[in-house]
Amino acid sequence: MQSSNLINALQARALSAKPLILAENAPLTKLEPGQRVQATIQEQVSPGLFKVQVAGQSMQMQLPEQLKAGNILELKVMATSPRVTFSFLASSTPIATQEQISSTSRFLANLTQLPLERALIQSSSGHAVWPTTGSAPDSKQLAVALKDALANSGLFYESHQAQWVRGERSTAQLLVEPQNLLDKQTDNQPATPAMQPDKAATELSLPIAKELVPLVQQQLHTLETHQLTWTGSIWPGQQMQWEIEGQPEHHNIQPDERQWSTEMELALPRLGDVHAKLVFSQGGIRLTLRGADASSVALFNRQLPALAMTLREAGVPLTSAVIEKT
User: Fold this and answer.
1) Which residues contact 121 (CB under 8 A, 6 or more apart)?
2) Which of 1, 137, 253, 324 has the greatest number of C-beta atoms within 10 Å?
3) Burial of 228 (0-12, 13-18, 19+ CB in 10 A)
């Protein structure tokens, strides 16, 4: 179940059909809350960022990339402090119409009410994270590969787009995420008979490709709960389930005081089922390790001092460890 905060916000957006637009480099004079103004697109500064003339004043706004110089928008001033904020009323281009914005908002609000116990992200590449066989993986390289597998899952695509706009992420990095792989997959599929009219109309009414609907639902779930689960092949023939949970942000908790936990489940050929949980905080790591039988637990206990030393050398002290049989 989603908390009421996110659902209410999306439903309110759906009813009002007035997404907020924050203006940059905007003077605070000549504008008042509730005022209706006409905005003219002057030029595109960068992808999604436009120079706009509003009430004789020049400012910059983040707007849909389909807009072009000369387009006219009808805006309403929502606030002038701490930042000048507008909402759409109408525009000369269909991308910013109330109908499309309201449809997208209703779509997102409906998604939040669908049952989803947790965000389950499956590897989109279809390949093992560590592709080689016959030798133990390098732990540092495997950690980087796991980070990339999660980062490229599409779950953080919108934030990656913002990084791309700021020049912090390359186009090639964006192209490996599911949102951009969909077109390639569609092109490679054989031709199929035409869809039934009612089915075609339903899919065309979606603001996104139907294949991405589960991913968008997972994004909303993760945003609200701070929890996600990734599953995929960690090396050929070896599946892993990886859960990550972040402590929700509170006004009385500093960013470096938040706790993060990660859990991994594997069914290994010799050790059997292994479950590991790590809780990260500013003070260090708390470890809980469960093995399938007594021999596995004994092996973990013998290797624990070496693990503690490795973590200490990496600047991440092991503050506590519990090793037990499942």
Assistant:
1) 150, 153, 154, 155, 218, 228, 229, 230, 231
2) 137
3) buried
Reported as a single tens digit per residue, the pLDDT across 253-281 is 665 667 889 999 999 888 999 999 999 98
Sheet holding 227-235, edge to edge: 120-122, 227-235, 238-246, 260-268, 272-281, 284-291, 318-325
Domain edges within the chain: 4-112, 120-146+198-325
Question: Highest mean pLDDT range out of 35-49, 171-185, 291-305?
Answer: 291-305
Contact at 8 Å (CB) between 87 and 76?
A: yes
CB of 128 closer than 8 Å to CB of 236: yes
**End-to-end Cα separation, the chain, in angstroms:** 30
Global model pTM greater than 0.85? no
**Class of 4-112 in CATH:** mainly beta
Yes or no: say if 75 and 43 are a contact pair by the CB < 8 Å rule: no
pLDDT digits 0-9 by tens, 22-57? 788 776 667 888 888 888 999 998 888 899 998 888
The pLDDT mean for the chain works out to 76
SS3 113: coil
What dihedral angle (degrees, nearest 10) is formed by the CA atoms of 211, 217, 220, 224?
Answer: -150
Q: What is the CA radius of gyration of the chain?
A: 25
Report the alpha-carbon angle 306-310-311, nearest 5.
120
Residue 229 falls in which region: left (phi positive, over 0), alpha (psi -120 to 50) or beta: beta
